[in-house]
Amino acid sequence: MKYHVFLSFRGEDTRLNFTTHLLQALKDEGLDVFFDEEKLERGEQLSQALSRAIAVSNISIIVLSADYASSKSCLVELSDIMDRYSVEQQIVLPIFYHVNPSDVENIDGSFKKSFDEHETRRSVDEVKQWKTAFAEVGKLQGWHIDGSISDR
């Protein structure tokens, strides 16, 4: 394996706060983390590079934020991660960042709206694949960070 951890997140939601701190904490523990801003080489096809990085990682940590499902690239990444989880038994650790885990599993709240919008622009099969992966990650044990004082 090339990376200890592949970090999946929606940049606009968490890059400048939670994800930056998580990345630093993982690095402080001596882990080699795939973080798209640091590891992608110029000219590489983004989805191919991400897929390769997922394939050569021991663990995927998915930071599920309110707008995670609005991003096509996040959903493609998530689908790839969950494929590796089911076929190759890759470890997947979800972090439910200011979202309810049951909203992820049941594709409810802001996630329902995001998937409804994808259904107007993408193929039925593609969106179905994303929904399946999204609901599956919602069933996994993970961390729920709800923004209360105990999270700080």
TrEMBL record:
PANTHER family: TIR DOMAIN-CONTAINING PROTEIN, TMV RESISTANCE PROTEIN N-LIKE. Keywords: Hydrolase, NAD. Pfam families: TIR. It catalyses: NAD(+) + H2O = ADP-D-ribose + nicotinamide + H(+). The lineage of its organism: Eukaryota, Viridiplantae, Streptophyta, Embryophyta, Tracheophyta. Its EC number is 3.2.2.6. InterPro entries: TIR_dom, Toll_tir_struct_dom_sf. Signal peptide: none annotated. Transmembrane segments: none annotated. It comes from the Eukaryota. It is an enzyme of class 3 (hydrolase). Residues 1-152 form the TIR domain. This is ADP-ribosyl cyclase/cyclic ADP-ribose hydrolase.
